[in-house]
Amino acid sequence: QGPVCTNLGLKPGQRLTVKGKIAPNAKSFVMNLGKDATLLGLHFNPRFDAHGDVNTIVCNSKKVEEWGAEHRETVFPFQKGGTVEITFGVNQNDVTVHLPGHQFTFPNRLNLPVFDYFDTQGDFVLQSISWE
């Protein structure tokens, strides 16, 4: 478990930029964005080799203990031991995930009006976080 941020107050039109280093022997890492640890509007989980997935990004939402349907992205711009910058743009109905050379959107299934919570877990060392 890496740092946990609360009271972010991210509203539509704002963005959160995360920079960090991926472990040299990484299997997967996670970034969660939501209201709190129990209400996750976006569970972002790049998997190098975990849970039967290889070089796949799995995204989901979580309401208390209930996960939604998994969404998979096959574009995988991450390298073990590398550094990466990821930006999450909050929109009215979804979150746009900006990766190196690729972007996609994930719906705001929980209809969160504001994203207050962010955490990282797994094989990732957070170097900086900023929002605007």
UniProtKB/TrEMBL annotation:
<feature type="domain" description="Galectin">
    <location>
        <begin position="2"/>
        <end position="132"/>
    </location>
</feature>
<dbReference type="InterPro" id="IPR044156">
    <property type="entry name" value="Galectin-like"/>
</dbReference>
<keyword id="KW-0430">Lectin</keyword>
<dbReference type="Pfam" id="PF00337">
    <property type="entry name" value="Gal-bind_lectin"/>
</dbReference>
<protein>
    <recommendedName>
        <fullName>Galectin</fullName>
    </recommendedName>
</protein>
<dbReference type="GO" id="GO:0030395">
    <property type="term" value="F:lactose binding"/>
</dbReference>
<dbReference type="InterPro" id="IPR001079">
    <property type="entry name" value="Galectin_CRD"/>
</dbReference>
<dbReference type="InterPro" id="IPR013320">
    <property type="entry name" value="ConA-like_dom_sf"/>
</dbReference>
<dbReference type="GO" id="GO:0043236">
    <property type="term" value="F:laminin binding"/>
</dbReference>
<dbReference type="GO" id="GO:0005615">
    <property type="term" value="C:extracellular space"/>
</dbReference>
